[in-house]
Specification:
heterodimer; A: mainly alpha; B: two-stranded antiparallel sheet; 2 strands; globular; disordered C terminus
């Protein structure tokens, strides 16, 4: 093991750490006046980190060469794919956030710094090769996230969201730690490779408990049923840019981590976790769909939609195959684009006084007052519902194709049938926007950068996205191959 | 045509026009939409003129490997050709029908219609299983918007019902498609059409496809979305729904269920017969008591579609040809009938049959065309309706006499409800002053109904034009089905024609037992 090699591999993390720390100093001396500058620099840092990780994905880096610090950390193609999504989401959050916070007079210099640290933690999660680095990355991300959720200090809902997120997140971390300690106790190692080797002969009872607790902790982080209860409250209460960040970067990181643990460390014990994952997946799909039907707040609706979509992504995990992992990554990429588009559109919903509009009924007749915005939201809703020819369909298609290829016919059948329930509430939003008489609540203009991001994301999830499907599919296949390297 | 991608062009023209319409104001949007549909119709004529009857099974093929997991593969055989022709023929008429009656959000309306046209042509031209699915399913989006935005009073309920019903059917089909591709290792439809799936698996696959096509068709008892959607849709929406979208179900059966799962089709043929018999009798009786003109025609559509399904599942050439002819004829005739309803709806804004009466006095030209289409719907010889129904019923007679017996009552009931409708609307006294004051067809309306009337007569008098392109394809399908034909209750024995009568064309042989019946 050669230290310089390891340090080279973690160059993106080093960059982000330095950027985060320097910006923290700038924030301390420059105060809130400097927040614009800090945001710009933070975005630049994230973009630079993105360019640092890209080569590993393009060259399909995998195997021992990508392992740093005695297997604690992996900088392979899989990690790169996850990190690019994470850095991208963080950068988008930073671009859309200032306009939002400045409108309510709450833009603070710490915001970009916290987002950078959260992105750093998220990046470590998808690179984890050991239970230790897993936990460090997770907590780094979580602690920054708790603060971000409560960032609107004067807003009761935001404070409530932060507190709820913290209490339940701490509980989940405790469960996860307990599972990790059991796993360590029964396998004698914390490294994923070591656990995999130790379990090759079979799973002891203690290790089963460890597995179940770890899965429960991770299910909390990806907001899968039955550990989803915090999601609607936090998504609704947190400031909208922060919600965007949670729903994209946080989700990708937690999913990547789950894949590392389940397919890597416990990969040869598929029989032990497959039923659990199948249950979680189907329960998330159904609960996410049913829970969304009665919602009146569009952010809560998006929260249930994220639960629902995580269920679909987990269908890919349930297969336990490389194709399934590739499909999960593909779906995640599309989901990130859909979520960004959705939340940026929600950010543009403001009434006369510039107050954010979140009530779905206020969207009535949006086609008349804001035709472009209504069209964008319609594209997002149909895409989330998985109606072809929008790109959201292809994500669902790939995970279910993996499920059928792995002979999980019943899962595919029930999952697809349940997606029809989900279609109902997406249709409701479209119905309100297009069929109802105008309520004339939403006024005002979309900010320039919001508009650019919204258009870019909508073009990606429109049928034009299919032109990228080969390229994106190639990348996800490489990334999944890196995850399965050597197994 | 060499390597010219005419099918892609036909898909692109309405798509580009649809995007343009989104940004145009009302008048320009109408003109662009009409121009685009006429261009597509002209391309359709070119397509037919260049279609080599008796040539390769798949013509105008294109293939581009630009997507992950599926390819942009297009190509048509005779069956697809005719359905594409039907679509491009009806589209300009639909745009004409909405010329004045749609006055709000015209650009979006035209865009939705042009999108529907693209997707319909795509469904019939797709040669890749998943490409087909995308076109098939994407049609839901514009139709949902058309019904929901421009529909009548109960439009929201109707739009939901339409969307969720058809979506549920389709996702089950998608699971089956995934399994087929997993097993056969290809997404190419022509390859899959000759691939032999294990009979046990066929049963499940057939049921999954059936779930989708039966809803789209629609077959009794999953037809209930159709009257709701029809009544609430604007006139042109009804025309396109009845004229082309319903054909997707029949096309699905003829392209997928029958050739890909012949054994399972044979196994389930009695089920189809049973459902079709129920549909013919029940929906015809329901049609008889309707007070709403559009509902009446909607129910008659269900009955006609049942004639299509029995023809398809007769497992012989007559039945298959007949069902194709019924589909084409129904596309023209029911479209024309909805148009006729639209004409008087535009004047009086009601579809209540009792509000009209004696229209033949003040609207003689209208009454003439309405009579022609009524007769075609009944299946009077000389009109398009006769050819298809006769062939279908003749086909099923060879497979199941009982089914033929029950389904033939549909002709009688059809005559009953259509003539009853016609009598109440066109004949009798002029009870209502406002109805009596309605002006006759104007030039725009004549331009829409005259081509339809000519097509109906052409198909009725010289059906060979329409039978010729698909003859080879039907024969190939019949050969594929031969190994699995179900045991029906019919035991026809050949007659003993006197020696001076040489064996005539196939149709006449069928006619003999049918006539004696």
């Amino acid at each position: 093991m050669d230290w310089s090699h390891s340090l080279r591999l973690i160059a993106p993390e080093e960059t982000l750490s330095v950027v985060g720390l320097v910006l923290l100093l700038v924030a301390a001396w420059g105060g809130d006046k400097a927040s614009r500058l800090i945001s710009i620099l933070a975005v630049a840092g994230l973009v630079a980190a993105g360019f640092l990780v890209a080569p590993a994905l393009c060259h399909g880096a995998m195997g021992p060469d990508t392992s740093a610090f005695f297997g604690q950390f992996r900088a392979d193609a899989f990690a790169s794919f996850g990190k690019i999504l994470i850095y991208l989401s963080a950068a988008v959050t930073l671009v859309v956030a200032p306009a939002f916070f400045e409108r309510v007079g709450a833009m603070r210099a710490e915001f970009p710094v916290l987002v950078v640290f959260a992105a750093l933690g998220s990046g470590m999660m998808v690179s984890a090769g050991d239970l230790m680095s897993l936990y460090i990355g997770l907590e780094m991300n979580s602690l920054a996230s708790y603060v971000l959720a409560a960032f609107l200090r004067t807003d009761g809902r935001s404070a409530e969201a932060g507190l709820k997120y913290f209490v339940l997140g701490a509980l989940a971390s405790g469960i996860l730690l307990f599972g990790m300690s059991l796993t360590y106790g029964f396998t004698g190692t914390t490294s994923f490779d070591g656990i995999s080797a130790a379990l090759a002969g079979g799973l002891s009872h203690g290790a089963v408990f460890g597995l179940v607790f770890i899965l429960a902790g991770l299910a909390f982080k990806i907001s899968a049923v039955p550990f989803h209860m915090w999601t609607p409250d936090v998504y609704e209460g947190a400031p909208t840019p922060v919600t965007t960040f949670f729903a994209t970067s946080g989700k990708v990181a937690a999913l990547g981590l789950t894949m590392r643990v389940v397919l890597g460390a416990f990969g040869n014990q598929a029989g032990a976790w497959q039923q659990i994952v199948v249950f979680i997946a189907l329960a998330s799909i159904v609960v996410g769909a049913l829970g969304a039907i009665g919602q009146r707040n569009i952010k809560r609706l998006m929260a249930y939609s994220s639960i629902n979509n995580v269920g679909f992504i987990l269908v890919g995990l349930a297969t336990g195959t490389q194709a399934g992992a590739s499909a999960m990554l593909f779906y995640s990429a599309v989901y990130v684009a859909m979520t960004i588009a959705g939340f940026v559109a929600i950010l543009s919903l403001r009434d006369d006084a510039g107050e954010p509009v979140e009530d779905i009924r206020s969207l009535a007749g949006l086609w008349k007052t804001r035709p472009g915005l209504a069209l964008a939201l319609m594209v997002v809703m149909f895409s989330l519902a998985g109606i072809p020819p929008l790109f959201g369909f292809w994500g669902k298609f790939l995970v279910f194709r993996a499920a059928v290829d792995a002979n999980l016919m019943a899962l595919a059948f029930i999952g697809f049938a349940a997606s029809v329930i989900g279609a109902f509430y997406y249709l409701k939003v479209i119905k309100v926007m297009y069929f109802d008489e105008p309520a004339d609540v939403v006024k005002g203009e979309t900010d320039l950068w919001h508009r650019i991001i919204l258009i870019a994301a909508c073009v990606f999830i429109s049928p034009l996205g299919f032109l990228l499907s080969r390229w994106l599919g190639g990348l996800t296949d490489t990334a999944a191959a890196a995850l399965f390297f050597g197994s | 045509m060499g390597g010219f991608p005419i099918l892609s062009l036909m898909l692109a023209v309405p798509l580009v026009a649809a995007l343009a319409c989104l940004f145009l104001e009302a008048k320009a949007a109408r003109q662009v939409a009409l121009a685009a549909t006429l261009v597509d119709f002209a391309l359709g004529v070119v397509l037919w003129a260049n279609f080599d009857i008796g040539g390769a099974q798949w013509q105008f093929t294109e293939r581009l490997e630009i997507f992950q997991g599926f390819s942009w593969a297009l190509g048509i055989d005779g069956i697809a050709l005719l359905l594409i022709e039907l679509s491009v023929f009806l589209m300009p008429i639909c745009i004409g029908a909405s010329w004045n009656s749609i006055d709000k959000r015209v650009g979006e309306y035209m865009a939705a219609f042009l999108l529907v046209e693209t997707l319909m042509i795509g469904v019939f031209a797709a040669q890749d299983l998943f490409l087909f699915y995308m076109f098939f399913e994407a049609g839901l989006i514009p139709m949902y918007l058309i019904i929901g935005i421009w529909g009548g009073a109960d439009r929201i309920y109707a739009s939901y019902k339409f969307f969720l019903y058809t979506l549920l059917g389709s996702v089950l089909m998608l699971v089956a498609m995934l399994w087929m591709v997993h097993t056969a290792g290809t997404t190419d439809i022509p390859t899959l059409m000759v691939y032999d799936f294990a009979p046990q698996a066929q049963t499940w696959l057939w049921l999954a496809f059936f779930a989708s096509f039966a809803v789209k068709m629609p077959m009794w008892p999953v037809h209930t979305w159709l009257p709701a959607a029809h009544v609430q849709a604007p006139t042109a929406g009804s025309v396109i729904l009845a004229g082309v979208l319903l054909k997707m179900g029949g096309y699905g059966f003829i392209r997928f269920s029958l050739p890909m799962f012949p054994e399972a089709s044979a196994l389930f043929a009695p089920l189809i017969w049973g459902l079709s018999m129920a549909a013919v009798v029940i929906t015809s009786l329901i049609a008889l008591v309707q007070h709403d003109m559009k509902k009446l025609i909607a129910y008659s559509s269900v009955a006609h579609m049942a004639i299509v399904t029995i023809g398809l599942f007769a497992f012989n050439v007559q039945g298959l040809e007949g069902s194709m002819m019924v589909m084409l004829s129904h596309g023209l005739v029911s479209g024309a009938l909805f148009l006729c309803v639209g004409v008087i709806y535009d004047r009086l804004h009601t579809r209540e049959i009792d509000r009209y009466g004696g229209l033949s006095i003040n609207m003689p030209r209208y009454a003439l065309f309405f009579l022609l289409f009524t007769m075609a719907s009944i299946g009077l010889p000389g009109t398009s309706g006769f050819v298809g129904e006769f062939l279908s019923l003749g086909g099923i007679y060879q497979a199941s006499t009982w089914t033929a017996l029950v389904c033939t009552t549909g002709i009688i009931l059809g005559a009953a409800y259509m003539l009853y409708l016609y009598r109440r609307v066109a004949f009798g006294e002029q009870k209502n002053a406002d109805a009596a004051a309605m002006p006759d067809l104007d030039a725009r309306e004549l331009l829409m109904v005259v081509p339809l009337a000519l097509a109906v007569l052409w198909m009725g008098i010289y059906p060979e034009s329409f039978l010729a392109p698909m003859r080879a394809d039907i024969a190939a399908l019949d050969a594929r089905l031969a190994r699995a034909a179900p045991a029906g209750d019919s035991k026809p024995t050949a007659g003993k024609p006197a020696s001076q009568h040489q064996a005539g064309p196939a149709h006449e042989e069928v006619a003999a037992p049918e006539g004696a019946h």
